[in-house]
Amino acid sequence: MSPAKKDGQTMPHIVVAGDLAVDWFEVEAPPLGPGKTGEGSPRNWRMSALVRREAKPGGAWLLADFLRAAARADVLAPPAGDVGAIPSGELVQKYIELGRFPLGGGKKDEKTSVFRDKSFKGSAGPEGDRASAFPFKVPAAAAGLFVLDDAGNGFRDDESLWPAGLLKASEALFVLKMSRPLATGRLFGELRKRHGDRLVLVVSADDLRRDGVKISRRLSWERTAREFVWQMASNPALLPFNGCAAVVVRFGVDGAIVYSRAGGAVESWLYYDPAAGEDGFGEGCPGEMIGLGSAFTAGLARYSQIRFLMPRKLSISDRSNVLRNRNRPLGTFSSSGSLPLTTKL
Fold first, then answer.
1. pLDDT digits (tens, 9 = 90+) for 194-233
2. Residues 134-145 as b or e (16 or more Cβ within 10 Å = b)
3. CA distance 132 to 255
4. DSSP code of 217?
5. C-alpha to C-alpha distance for 251 and 68, rounded to whole angstroms
6. Tell me: the pLDDT tens digits for 40-51?
7. Pairing relation of β-strands 246-251 and 255-262?
8. What is the CA 126 to chain-centroid distance, rounded?
9. CATH topology classification for 5-21+55-91+129-343
10. Is the overall model pTM greater than 0.70, yes or no?
């Protein structure tokens, strides 16, 4: 596959790899009724509620699909094929029950209701230490951006599963979406050592908290932002993060902090919804959605192809896409705002 072209110029590939998963969605449907048979007797199975199931590509596959929708470039990723035929002994399988929910807040209306996650049933996966990933050896010499999904399911520690050229790509930008345990694993260590000045790390605030990082929740955006900057400067567990060009912390779909470093100077920018606290948007939308972190990372990666993700270089329209999952007004704290988060350490 040759690189895509835009305005007569060749655009580099985007390579996506990481932990893979099969997401199984099931939804309950009304009984079919007895139906008609030649003997006149009903089929008993038709008299009980039906369960319909469908398998969809998850993990790095889902991230690649989001990137294809967001980016005007060739996206290379492990081929998915018929994921429903993949046994749990090979890849992680997640089971989600869907339900009908109102599109926004208020009473459910069949004409405007949508399917969202009603409950997470659990997972199955490979036995022992086998990683939930397939080898991906597509030549990546022309890759300008690597987007990696480290879900903590083995990809991070098995170099044989990493894309060809990953460690030697001296000009590419790297976006690493990492789940807990954070700041660990061979993949993060190698990327930080070899490509730290071009590495954008994406983590969730909830994963930071689960790993013991003390940042408040829903007291105020200002306090949460200050606490994170303080933790970056003083918490030994976060010292490896300082080897990245930028660290992006996602607060649900309501806010994000971009902590970037260049030339010895540190800048921290908070992007937030002034009308809601953390997870406030979800309270008006019953049900859950998987893949929010992947959607966020895809939108961020699309707009991170500027060299070091320096927030001062982003246009207003680009900043709005930092919260790609939302279509609501954003507020910003910066060195020129009421809360100076431009910090030199």
1. 999 999 999 999 999 999 999 999 889 989 999 999 999 9
2. bebebebebbbb
3. 30
4. S
5. 24
6. 666 788 888 889
7. antiparallel
8. 22
9. UDP-N-acetylmuramoyl-L-alanine:D-glutamate ligase (3.40.1190)
10. yes
